[in-house]
Structure formats: structure tokens, C-alpha cells
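stage 2 :: seqdesign
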């Protein structure tokens, strides 16, 4: 079964279901983005905090791909949320990216001030600087709090989600509220590639462990943001559309959850 490469958001806009993540891509960011665009990726996931928006912008420009074909996500950093500097932060990001608008703007973490930041993002969306707004690292209780105080339902919640870390409560809540869940660290920053059960499934399908994990997420309706700076892995991580996992293998993958985070818990972080 061929899977569509875009998902419809709750506002009817479309978003590519595969993005290149560029956290910690450092000096290799520009090359990685160029490799991804060449391999057919059209969605890039960056953030002000990653310090590489300029490099992403250079790659976009150099690729020559029409702006409307691309889907660019960046994120509002915690200090700017706390200081009420949403507008300034977005303008700085747009300037670094060399863009007039971003396709998706996310609140990076649920720090104090997130409701006001979100309300300002709603304004910036109406002004045309942002096509879609969303959040990141919001658990169910954060989303419930937000939804009770804002006008626009977030299009997306970006959260750590991989075989070892599956927040089922959030997954269900997002489904019920038509919020697309995006998986950050879909490969567990690489750690999940070593899980023996996944290696066994990969052998059966003649695919790599990375492809099995990414395909599992897609079949669950979760958008994926694998990061790599290696061209062959960037290509590998996009070759997900010529096979389908059977239901029993989806169940096997679901059963690997250990609530084991590679990153901080959104209820306990200190930055
Ligand atoms: P991933 O789960 O994507 O894993 C990336 C690691 O796996 C890298 O070390 C990479 O190495 C390696 N890798 C990638 N593909 C393969 C492959 N096919 N075979 C073997 N190894 C592979 O982790 P990240 O933590 O980077 O998360 C992905 C993205 O999620 C980030 O880049 C960022 O965009 C987003 N994110 C968002 C957060 C948030 O708070 N909203 C927090 C963390 C991440 P190499 O590069 O050397 O190839």
C-alpha cells in the first residue's frame, strides 16, 4: 500500500510527514539539508536554539527549490517566551532563515508565559508570518491548559517518541483533538537501533532498524524528524514507502515501551 507523503492538519493545510531534523548537525547542517532536499525531503525541522537557522537558510537558497514546495519549521526559545519576546524572536528567525514566513512555529518547551506567547503567535499567523502554529514538549495537562485559553487549536505537538518512549496518554489525546504528533528523537538518538527485537524484525523485512522504526511511527500516524548528517543515512531514512509493517509487528513495536527518555522530562527541566 502506498502511503501519502503529506498529512492534512486540523486547519486543512498540508504538511510533509517526513522531515530532516538538524539539532546538533553543527557545521554539517548546510550539507545535510542540501542532501535531504536532493533526496526528496521537503520539510526541515530547526529551532532558534539549534544555532543553525542561517545554515538552513543558505541550503534552501542554494537548492533553488520553490518556496511553496518547502515546509520549514522553527521554534521559539524559552528565554523569549519568559521575556514576552515572541514577535522579536520570530523576526530574528525569519531573518536568519532568509524567509518571509515559516510554515510551522512551535513553542519549544512549556515554560512560564506560554499562553501569552501562543496568543502572540496567533496574531503573527493572521499577519502572514506563520502558516501553522503548534507546541513542543507539551504533555496532556499542558495541552489542556493551553486549549482552555487560546483560540486556535495547535496543529502539532512535537514530543520525544520512539520505541522506548511512548507517551500513550498524549498519543490518544492528540488523536482525539486532531493535533498531529511529531516524534523527536524517533531513533532514540540512535539508541533504539540496537534493540534486538527491532533488529530481528528488520531482518525479516530486509530493511534496516532505522527504516523499521520510522515506518512504525508513520503507520501510527506520527510525523517523523530523523536527524543525520550522512547522505547515505539521509537517503535510507526516506526510503520508507515501498513496504508496510504487518499489524502483529506494529504490536511488537508498541510493546517495547519502557517510558525511557533520552531527553528531559517536560515536567522537570531546568533551562
Ligand atoms: P534521532 O532519533 O533522529 O537520531 C539521530 C542519531 O542517529 C544521530 O546520531 C545519527 O547519526 C543517527 N542516525 C540517523 N539515521 C541513522 C541510520 N539510518 N542508521 C544509523 N544511525 C542513524 O535523534 P535526534 O535526537 O537528533 O532527534 C531528531 C530531531 O528531532 C532533531 O534533529 C530535532 O530536529 C528534533 N528534536 C526536537 C526536540 C524538541 O525539544 N522539540 C528535542 C530533540 C530533538 P549521524 O547524524 O552521525 O548520521
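stage 2 :: out
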Amino acid at each position: 500500500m502506498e502511503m501519502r507523503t503529506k498529512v492534512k492538519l486540523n486547519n486543512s493545510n498540508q504538511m510533509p510527514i517526513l522531515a530532516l531534523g538538524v539539532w546538533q548537525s553543527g557545521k554539517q547542517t548546510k550539507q545535510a539539508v542540501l542532501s535531504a532536499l536532493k533526496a526528496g525531503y521537503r520539510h526541515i525541522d530547526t529551532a532558534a536554539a539549534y544555532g543553525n537557522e542561517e545554515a538552513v537558510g543558505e541550503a534552501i537558497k542554494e537548492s533553488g527549490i520553490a518556496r511553496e514546495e518547502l515546509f520549514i519549521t522553527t521554534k521559539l526559545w524559552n528565554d523569549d517566551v519568559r521575556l514576552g519576546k515572541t514577535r522579536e524572536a520570530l523576526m530574528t528567525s525569519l531573518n536568519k532563515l532568509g524567509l518571509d514566513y515559516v510554515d510551522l512555529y512551535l513553542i519549544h518547551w512549556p515554560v512560564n508565559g506560554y499562553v501569552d506567547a501562543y496568543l502572540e503567535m496567533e496574531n503573527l499567523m493572521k499577519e502572514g508570518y506563520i502558516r501553522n502554529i503548534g507546541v513542543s514538549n507539551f504533555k496532556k495537562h499542558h495541552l489542556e491548559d493551553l486549549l482552555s485559553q487560546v483560540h486556535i487549536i495547535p496543529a502539532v505537538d512535537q514530543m520525544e517518541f520512539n520505541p522506548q518512549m511512548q507517551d500513550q496518554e498524549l498519543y490518544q489525546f492528540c488523536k482525539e483533538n486532531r493535533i498531529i504528533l511529531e516524534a523527536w528523537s524517533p531513533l532514540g538518538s540512535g539508541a533504539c537501533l540496537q534493540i534486538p527485537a527491532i533488529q530481528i524484525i528488520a531482518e525479516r523485512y530486509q530493511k534496516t532498524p532505522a527504516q523499521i522504526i520510522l515506518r512504525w511511527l508513520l503507520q501510527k500516524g506520527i510525523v517523523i524528524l530523523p536527524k543525520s548528517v550522512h547522505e547515505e543515512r539521509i537517503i535510507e531514512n526516506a526510503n520508507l514507502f515501498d513496504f508496510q509493517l504487518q499489524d502483529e509487528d506494529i504490536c511488537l513495536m508498541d510493546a517495547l515501551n519502557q517510558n525511557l527518555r533520552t531527553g528531559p522530562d517536560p515536567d522537570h527541566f531546568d533551562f
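stage 3 :: structure notes
- Residues 6-254 form a domain with the TIM Barrel fold (CATH 3.20.20.100).
- DSSP finds eleven helices and ten strands in the chain.
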